[in-house]
Amino acid sequence: MRRRIFIDGEAGTTGLGIRARLxxxxxxxxxxxxxxxxxxxxxxxxxxxAAELVVLCLPxxxxxxxxxxxxxxxxxxxxxxxASTAHRTAPGWVYGFPELSPGQEALIAKAERVANPGCxxxxxxxxxxxxxxxxxxxxxxxxxISAVSGYSGGGRSMIAxxxxxxxxxxxxxxxxxxHKHLPEIERYAPLSRRPIFxxxxxxxxxxxxxxxxxxxxxxxARPKAADLAAALAAHYRNAKRVRVVPAEASGRLEPQALNDxxxxxxxxxxxxxxxxxxxVARLDNLGKGASGAAVQNALLMxxxxxxxxxxxxxxxxxxx
Length: 320
Known about the structure:
Elements: E1 3-8, H1 13-23, E2 28-31, H2 41-50, E3 53-56, H3 60-71, E4 79-82, E5 94-95, H4 104-110, E6 113-115, H5 119-133, E7 144-150, H6 155-165, E8 170-172, H7 182-188, E9 196-202, E10 208-215, H8 225-235, E11 242-244, E12 264-271, E13 276-283, H9 287-301
């Protein structure tokens, strides 16, 4: 029997990516609403009632309204996977990063409501959480997180601007230091001191780098870069979608190497003579950073086997 999923907001960038991945899975049947009824509450409620899982690809306010529609359906209501920012730190919602800790995948599998992580947050938390758990990085340590994403992460208006008029080659944004991914980074890293987060957009469609510089002598454990890499490798030893790989000998990384995959690579670049290191996560902001992560969570919530969409060939990994 095929499992039924309704994507509320399937016409957006994330929704289209989820739909394409799910359509390739024989175990899944998608419920649809005609385009002319996308904003019709009755039509959406009917599709939700027919589904076992509703995936929300909506702005925050609309996502909250969609949850209210699901709640109105009574005890037979479907499970919810929300790809918006609305519920990532909300009570009663499970955070949808299965690799976060050994028990997180099981929590997602049995959850009624799961919040899909943000793309920047996925990279930052993937780097920070294992090091904090291992005692190598204090939660109160002052951190600066820098990131660059392809313009597809900026929504329809940014995509249109870049594809029609060329767009800027590069731009910093959120310089008011209030980016919407910060609360989930603080919660799930976890951090007791708010980091400085500097996101940016480049003139390329998709791909992402998240980087965190560290002065190793300011850390109480005084680790080497190799210690950080070993802790990351130990944490992700059995992860299929997250790989800890050796730092590029060239000292360079470009953000598009994992485009059209649902994978994430983690690197530790170090200079032991200077006692400095840079942690880097590379992912497709539309893959592990959005649609790919949503499908991973959807399959867990429905008890179906995981499938890694459009994977690139295996690379050498760092072993603890």
